[in-house]
Amino acid sequence: MKKRFIGMIVLICMIMTGCVDQHQKPQGQSGTQTRIIATSVAISQITDLLGLDLVGICDTKSFKLPKRYESVTRVGMPMGPDMEIMRSLKPTQVLSPTSLQSFLEEQYKEAKLPYRFLNMSSVSSMYDSIDEVAKEYGKEEEAKKLRDEYENLLKDYQEKRKDKEKPKVLVLMGLPGSYVIATNNSYVGNMVELAGGINIFKDDVEEFLPINTEELVKMQPDIILRTSHTMSEEIMDEFDEEFKTNDIWKHFDAVKNNRVYNLDNKYFGMSATMAYKEGLKILDEIFYEK
């Protein structure tokens, strides 16, 4: 229980920044060479699609970075980029996700780095962030093409499924030693709704909420989805142990009906990525049992 509580506190610290883009504008950027650092895989996907070069990019052990950045200087992992390396690159702007703002903002200020935090908490927020970056760097045409593709894809997807029954879905986000509920404001919760499901936990502000299994039983979701922020295999093992040893889960219809699914955090992590297209296909197969 103590480990779970600590895990929840860490996660809450990560997401308390909310959905507002707070950033320090780059100083003296006009007339100087653009030197951008992307500290997350999702953001590097955005800069790649917009045709922007980078001078620095995050390290990653789990995800593939865009090919165009293979020779770009690595600045460390998303949760702990190396400030000295970033300073040495003399960036005109550092781009990071709002989910890590509470960890990184003070460090950026102390290092005197120009930064912008991008909201990647949902697919629509990701496209809003694309528009923001595109406007700043004169890539509006590329951004418009991306948005048009997104809106057409979503319209077609939802039109084909408008008459299908919407399953009630519970989404669990795993952390080492703990797990929380992903609301409609989280990326995974947002994906559930885009795919035609009903996320049984809605919140006007929070992306994640602490879990209360006794209350969950009363809500009886049709489907339970389990994903993770990091350490996917270890987290899924912890989920399996939890569902085997905690008798409360035996009272869920979703468990009785074998409708508990593990999701790959490459498609269902903390932040929206362009992998959402594949994520929709995965959820479509789960929701409608193709």
TrEMBL record:
Cofactor: heme b
GO cellular component: membrane
Keywords, alphabetical: Cell membrane, Heme, Iron, Lipoprotein, Membrane, Metal-binding, Palmitate, Signal, Transport
A Pfam family: Peripla_BP_2
Any GO BP: heme transport
GO molecular function annotations of the record: heme binding; metal ion binding
Domain Fe/B12 periplasmic-binding: 35-290
Signal peptide positions (record): none
SUPFAM superfamilies found in the cross-reference section: Helical backbone' metal receptor
Family stated for the protein in its record: Belongs to the bacterial solute-binding protein 8 family.
Entries under NCBIfam families matching the protein: IsdE (TIGR03659)
UniProt protein name: High-affinity heme uptake system protein IsdE
Organism: Peptoanaerobacter stomatis
